[in-house]
Design a protein that fits this description.
The complex is a heterodimer of chains A (179) and B (133). Chain A has 179 residues and is mainly alpha-helical. Chain A has one domain. In chain A, 94% of the residues lie in helices and 0% in strands. Chain A has four helices and no strands. In chain A, helix 1 packs across helix 3. With 133 residues, chain B is of the alpha+beta class. In chain B, 51% of the residues lie in helices and 21% in strands. Chain B contains five helices and four strands; from the N terminus they run αααβαβββα. Chain B has a four-stranded mixed β-sheet. In chain B, helix 1 runs antiparallel to helix 2 and helix 1 crosses helix 3. Chain B is globular. Classes of the chains: A mainly alpha (179), B alpha+beta (133). Chains A and B meet through helix 3 and helix 4 of A and helix 4 and helix 5 of B.
C-alpha cells in the first residue's frame, strides 16, 4: 500500500490535471479498478459459484423441507380426516354397542321379569292347589269324623233306649223286608 | 292202624245218623272218641260245619240266631219259617244266642250263608259305605 501511495503521489505531482484538482489520483484509481476487477474475477471464479451453489442447495433444501412440510401437512390433514373417520366410526360402533347392550339388558330384564312373574304365578297356583287339597282333605276328615261320631252316638243312644219291644218290632220289620 | 277218614265221610255218616233220630248222643260220642283217638280234635269245628252242610242237604237246617235279647217263641218261629223259605228245608233247628254288642235286630247264621240285620251291622255299613277315602 505504501508503494501505491508513493506511485500515486508521484503521478499526481507530475500530471497536475483535473483529477488532481478533484483530489483523485487516476493511477491509484486505475489500480483500484484493476484490483476490483481482479477481485470480481476471483470472486466470480471461486466464491460466487460456491456461494450460489450453497444458496441453491439451501434453497433446494428449503423447498424440499417446504415440500416435506406441505406433504406432512397434507398427510396430517389426511390423517386428521382418517382419524375423524375412525373416530366417527368408533363413535358409531360405540353407540351401536351401547344400543345393543341396552337392548340386550332390556330384553334380559324383560325375560327375568317374565320368568319371575311365571315363577310367582306357579307358586301361587301350587299354593292354591295345595290349599284346595288341604281343604278337601279337611272336608273328608270332617265328613268321616262326623260319620264316626254319629255312629258312636247312635250306638250309645240305642244301647240305652232300645228296649225289647222296639227290638221285636225291628226284627219283625226286618223279616218282612228280607222276605 | 285204621285208615284215616275224610271230613266229608265223617260228616255224611254223622248226618245220616242224626237224621235217623235215634242214638244222637251215641253217634256224637263216637265222633268225639274218633277225633280224640286220631288226634284230630283241632278239626272239630270244620267237621261240625260239614255236618251242618250234610244235614242241610238232607232237609235239616241249623239256624243260629243272634240278637241283643232273648226272642219270643213267636219271633223264633217267624225266623224259622223265613229260614225254611230261604233254604227249602223241611226241618229248622234254631239256636238262640244273646249278644248285647249287636244293639238290636238279629243275625241269622245258616250253613254257607249269613243274614245280618243287626243295628251294629248297619252302623258298620254307615261307617264303611259313607266314609270318604
Amino acid at each position: 500500500m505504501d508503494f501505491l501511495r508513493y506511485f500515486a503521489a508521484e503521478t499526481t505531482s507530475a500530471e497536475g490535471d483535473i483529477f488532481s484538482a478533484l483530489g483523485i489520483d487516476w493511477r491509484l484509481l486505475i489500480l483500484q479498478i484493476i484490483a476490483f476487477i481482479i477481485l470480481v474475477v476471483l470472486l466470480g471464479k471461486f466464491v460466487y459459484p460456491w456461494l450460489m451453489k450453497s444458496v441453491d442447495d439451501r434453497q433446494a433444501k428449503i423447498e424440499e423441507a417446504s415440500k416435506a412440510a406441505e406433504a406432512a401437512k397434507e398427510a396430517a390433514e389426511k390423517n386428521q380426516v382418517e382419524v375423524e373417520k375412525l373416530l366417527s366410526r368408533a363413535r358409531k360402533e360405540a353407540a351401536e354397542i351401547v344400543n345393543t347392550a341396552k337392548t340386550e339388558s332390556s330384553e334380559m330384564l324383560s325375560t327375568s321379569e317374565k320368568k319371575a312373574k311365571d315363577t310367582a304365578e306357579q307358586i301361587i297356583t301350587n299354593a292354591h292347589s295345595q290349599i284346595e287339597k288341604d281343604v278337601e282333605h279337611a272336608r273328608k276328615q270332617l265328613h268321616n269324623d262326623t260319620i264316626e261320631l254319629i255312629a258312636l252316638a247312635t250306638e250309645k243312644v240305642v244301647a240305652k233306649t232300645h228296649d225289647n219291644k222296639a227290638d221285636n218290632k225291628l226284627i219283625t220289620a226286618a223279616l218282612k223286608e228280607v222276605q | 292202624m285204621a285208615k284215616k277218614l275224610s271230613r266229608r265221610i265223617l260228616a255224611k255218616y254223622v248226618a245220616d245218623q242224626l237224621v235217623k233220630k235215634d242214638g244222637h248222643a251215641l253217634v256224637l260220642q263216637q265222633l268225639a272218641a274218633y277225633l280224640i283217638e286220631n288226634k284230630r280234635t283241632d278239626e272239630a269245628l270244620l267237621i261240625v260245619r260239614d255236618i251242618e252242610h250234610e244235614l242241610m242237604n238232607r232237609g235239616v237246617v241249623i239256624a243260629r240266631i243272634t240278637s241283643s235279647h232273648s226272642l219270643s217263641d213267636e219271633l223264633q218261629k217267624s225266623i224259622a219259617d223265613f229260614t225254611k223259605k230261604q233254604t227249602g228245608a223241611k226241618t229248622v233247628v234254631t239256636e238262640l244266642g244273646v249278644d248285647k254288642s249287636v244293639l238290636g235286630g238279629f243275625r241269622l247264621d245258616l250253613p254257607g250263608k249269613q243274614i245280618d240285620r243287626t243295628i251294629a251291622n248297619q252302623l258298620m255299613t254307615l261307617r264303611t259305605k259313607f266314609k270318604k277315602v
